[in-house]
Amino acid sequence: MEEKINNLLASYQIHYQNLRSLHWNIKGENFFELHLKYEELYTRTQIIIDDLAERILSLELQPLSTFTAYLSRSEIKENQIIKDGKLGMKYIFDAQIVLLNLEKSILNSSSDQEDEGTAALMSDLIREKEKTNWMFKAWLN
Q1: Residue 110 sits in a domain of what CATH number?
Q2: What's the number of domains the chain is made of?
Q3: Three-class SS string for the chain?
Q4: pLDDT digit string, tens, across residues 44-101
Q5: What is the pTM for the complete model shown?
């Protein structure tokens, strides 16, 4: 479990930085809309990161805490600068699929281990991500 949940933490950390970069670098006709959306997303991601790290600690495990570790363990890679709104939203949609798959894997493992706290956290994240992915997909089409 420790490896899976730390991989999720690392993936969220890289995703967070990618979202910050999208926020800083967006250009074009959707600037105002996406600048605000990216800020909303990175703010929410920051809360999730803290929740994950605290969950890891509550399991008496050690959360990753260096960018070297994040980069080596993340399922999400660093983005180059993205200025185009469609490309930025495509990145978010694809990244959320990666995060969703990691969360589902942890949910299954935590259920098998009767770890209700981790299962509840993953369930909440999955439900949230499924809804936002539906919205992002609608925006992209």
Answers
A1: 1.20.1260.10
A2: 1
A3: CHHHHHHHHHHHHHHHHHHHHHHHHCCCCCHHHHHHHHHHHHHHHHHHHHHHHHHHHHCCCCCCCCHHHHHHHCCCCCCCCCCCHHHHHHHHHHHHHHHHHHHHHHHHHHHHCCCHHHHHHHHHHHHHHHHHHHHHHHHHC
A4: 999 999 999 999 999 999 999 999 999 999 999 999 999 999 999 999 999 999 999 9
A5: 0.96
